[in-house]
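Posting for a labmate who doesn't have an account.
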Amino acid sequence: MGRIKLQSGIKVIEEEPEECGTSESYRATIVCMINAEAGTVLAVMRRNVRWGVHYMSGDDQLEDSLIQSLKTLRKQIFSWQNPWHTINPALYLQPFLDVIRSDETGAPITGVALLSVYKILTLDVIDENTVNVEDAMQSVVDAVTGCRFEVTDPASEEVVLMRILQVLLACMKSKASVMLSNQHVCTVVNTCFRIVHQAGSKSELLQRISRHTMHELIRFIFSHLPDVENTNQALVDGVATVKQESGELGNDYALGSTQMENGNCNSELGGQASSVRFGSDASTGLAAIEENAIGAGRGKDALPFDLHLMTLPYGMPCMVEIFHFLCSLLNVAEHIGKGPRSNTIAFYEDVPLFALGLINSAIELGGPSIHCQPRLLSLIQDELFSNLMQFDLSTSPLILSMVCSIALNLYHHLRTELKLQLEAFFSFVILRLAQSRYGASYQQQEVAMEALVDFCRQKTFMVEMYANLDCDMTCNNVFEDLINLLSKSAIPMDCPLSSMHVLALDGLIAVIQGIVGRIGNGSDGSEPAPVNIDEYTSFWTAKCDSYSDPNQWVPFIRRRKHIKRRLMVGADHFNRDPKKGLEFLQGTHLLPEKLNPQSVACFLRYTSGLDKNLIGDFLGSHDEFSIQVLHEFAQTFDFEDMSLDNALRLLLETFRLPGESQKIQRVLEAFSERYYEQSSQVLANKDAALLLSYSLILLNTDRHNAQVKKKMTEEDFIRNNRRINGGNDLPREFLSELYHSICKNEIRTTPEQGFGIPEMTPSRWIDLMHKSKRTAPFILSDSRADLDRDMFAIMSGPTVDAISVVFDHAELEDIYQTCIDGYLAVAKISACHHLVDVLDAVVVSLCKFTTLLNPSSVEESVLAFGDDARAMMATVTVFTIANRYGDYIRTGWRNILDCVLRLYKLGLLPARVASDAAEESELSADPVHGKTISNSLPSVHMQSMETPRRYTGLMGRFSQFLALDIEEPRSQPTEQLAAHQRTLQTIQECHVGSIFTESKFLQAESLWELAQALILAAGHPQKGNSLPEDEDTAVICLELLITITLNNRDRILLLWQGVYEHIANIVQSTVMPCSLVEKAVFGLLRICQRLLPYKENLAEELLRSLQLVLKLDARVADAYCEQITQEVGRLVKANAAHIRSLMGWRTITSLLSITARHPDAAEAGFDALFFIMCDGSHLLPANYVLCVDAARQFAESRVGQAERSVCAVDLMGDSVSCLARWSQDAKEAMGEESAKLSEDIGEMWLRLVQGLRKVCLDQREEVRNRSLLSLQKCLTGVDGIKLPHDLWLQCFDLVIFTMLDDLHEIAQGHQYNYRNMEGTLVIAVKLLSKVFLQLLPEIAQLTTFCKLWVGVLSRMEKYLKVKVKGKKNEILQETVPELLKNTLLVMKSWGVLVQRSASGGDSLWELTWVHVNSIAPSLQAEVFPDQGQEQSLHKLDETGYVPSNEPVHAECAAGTGG
């Protein structure tokens, strides 16, 4: 068990002639080489007088056995014919080994013999299949490690030592090395180590070779660790150590003894005796650890292997022995006194550094397999790490660097087994050495920081620290501590930026980049569900069901982290008032409603941040509950295998021992009871533990209190503790050890408060090892991002601060780029996890570095910006973040807009930077009468990014210099031009416009914040006062606001209220034309144009907003009337079908009506109205009256040519067809709505004819006459419209009669502005006749017919007698009688006008002829030629068409007055 498995890949020497090992040529080569080596050794030996003299004894010539054996080998070797692997290696190795062993040979001879053995071993002629290979290999090791030689000169001695190293290394690397036993491997390593020691006083070459050989040995041995079988069954306790075993096997095994010496034999050179001891100079170099040689006693905790295992082929036993030996070298400095040393490397650095290098090599090669070797793993967990912990502030940077390398290797290979050890390493080593406040030198800080950054570059390191330690309530917040360390170390405090600061920043960014690499793996970025604690559970000992399933351990540790945070809050409450603190914890369900001692004890024991004075007072209280808590508190400690003083130290590190004697007694009683339970080997009872604890407290006070002058001696202490152990004395050695421990290391009864970093003490380490047996398993992190949000929330603030400060202090572009990478990574994570506050902080930080917000002149700012790499990089970055992660920017938009506005004022942005992407055609403004609507900003801001702006200042003068070819030095202007070009290129890379044109992809909340930021940046204009600079800012902000509004039509409800109020504020406060109000008005119109087709639910609101245009100041309205009208026209043409409400059409027609009398706008306004009314395609019941009224205003308007008015009249007249169509539709559709529509149609028709009546009075003849004809059309062309009789009567009274009367009055009034009124009057009277005759069948039956008829007759009479310009018109004189005659004939044919009896009094007949006779007396005879007046009256009575009742006559009578 525990041995190396034979490698199947090792070639076996076969007997076939094809194999090189058995071929004749190969055999001859080996034989010749061995023969030559034997000859070489003989030749060197013969050079010495001792070996060159022949001794005679009688007749026989005798030779030394060494020479005889070599000669015998040369004699026999050529006779060997068997396959080489069947030849015993001892036959050809032993002669050389005898020479090496001999103490009579000098250094040159021994060196040659060692070289011969080395050559044989490197030929690979010996492998595991060779006969007797095991004995042969062990003989080689025994001979070489037991090498004796006579030293003749230092150089020869060093050669021999080098040869020994070569041979031992060759033995280990030989194929047959697997046959070496554990003991022999230990001996090999021990021998090499002794030579390393010897080399301390030798040449630098030997030092380096010996150390290199030692490294090679360790690397080779531990490289076989994966091949070693598990040794769980091979460990036994209570047997002798290897040191003892080596004594049984022979002194040659124990290199730590004095057996390896060369001075036993004197050389008789020069008549002087020379004696050199191999292994002397114990005061130098590594000699001081002689007692720690491999196999030596390792203390009470050692578990050595038995003798049998050490004699088996090597494997785990020797590896454990070697590793333990290397670990023991780490604390050798404690046992070494200072003195002169020949080694150039200081001893306190040399020994541990050498050992650490060997340990690191062993872990590098065997690390992954240590999991399967419990004994080796235990050494690493305890002895190695406890020794690593001892390297404090006095440690050299070289050692510290190696310690950190070992820790990194252990993290990679064994972190699942080293949870608490890693916590201790970072808490007690890294955090202490990386901060100057603990006394670390700059070099130590740098090494510690480099190591920490290396850890940070491991992608899973910080996640695992957070999951395993920060989320464990009994562990330190290592993740938070390391992040705080890195962030603080990255910030220079009253000093220039150094490599340390940049290194710390690299660590932070490495952690951030690790989080970036996990984005999208297992997390959607949303905030995890909050942890709710509804009731108390015993969470201190809770375990997760599966630490390998993220679906289980992630919620579990999140809950524990939440509890840990709440406990910290509870600790704060406790420190202010213990009683209220416990009540708070009960209220948050972290303690049970009814307190129990165990839960309170756990809170006091494991919660960090508690005031240790308060804990001591609480535990020392005399009430029953506190006493119970005290005993439960003591039960949380594990004092097993811990000395009494260390146990007491551990206890008193958790609280301050109260000052009252009764409290002290209660505390020590609980402690003694617990200690006796676990460590009863020496103490007879708990009373003995109590008394001895008191004694230790007294001794501690006596020895470490400056006020005590006479100190207690060891004898005093022993005497004071007589007969306390159940009436017997305690062992003197036991008490002596306690005494010296207290004298050397004070027990602090006042432990450190707060969150400082204490030192690792033996008691703490023992407690850690006990705790490691109970701690939760180590959670291995994969590429999932389950905890990244929680981690980033903790580290984002310090990280952004650190990046910002380094960016501010840096001067090199590579550091700038590092900071920029950090900013972008933080922004990406913030966006992924929806941490808007962090992203805002990044934006704010970056905007400070753009220098765009610094007040300075335009030219200075542009040139300075172009020369400032940091500013340009910051600018590009801030806009990159805005474009990529704008969804999660909130208040940061304000800072971004400040930069945008500054760039705009500097002329570095195009005027249309925010042009609506969907309307590329609008980029070029429409020329209207030589004016440009959209381009109203100062020309200085209209520069494109492709063409540098022409400056009037320095740059302009420079251009003039070039143009005039002035011979001035051009270096400075050229640099300025290059800076300007860099500036423009940088701004182009920013893609500023994309922020606004792509705003449709922003989340709603971010979009709203952007809009609010624009409104805020624009400011609030005050009535009548706008500064030009403020106006420019307000204009660009308004343009951008309109752009994002247009690009977010689907979310217009989100933006509309703010946009409308902003525009309204501008419109209502402006009294003079300016760019701002122009942008506001036309922006509003564009919004309506673009959004009406898509937002029916907002159409009314949009159209109502256009009423703002009606509220413009008269001067402003007049300046932009034409353009406004054009935009309204476009709106109508594009969206007429989407305007359905009365309010909307009222706004539109009001805007159009206003233009009727505006010289520039009338054409556009009428064009829009014509579009609406032409063919009636866009006329609706909702807009009919409004459009007719607007058309009337255009008809009456005298602006422009009369043709427009005529066309407007035609529109009015043609619109009657719409009424007919709607009426027909209403007839077909039954219901209340159709009845209402029919009624409305009548009203619309009446408004139409009333409107035409007004136009009929126009001064222009063509308009007047066309209006009359259109009115006639509307009055006579209503067959499809069902109009009630009373509406017709209203029409006659309000329209026809009024129109006739007004025309008559105009004609009579000698109005010279009215030309050719005669023709108008003729048309008018004809209209009267036609309308009357058309309506005659319907109105003849009305009771008011008589009145209506009289009104018609009276108007004809007036027109017959009218004098135009003082004379009667001949046409009228002819037309009126003719029309009257025709009317009478029609009435006669319809039976309306007939004679009735004379008894009726005033009647229709009589009234008719009264008026007719005054017009044309002859008409009666013409119309009724066959009847006289009486007959006619008689006939009328008989027919009875018109009843002869009083009302009729009354109406007729009344009608005569018309």
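Reply:
Got it, the structure tokens are right above this. The chain has a mean pLDDT of 80.
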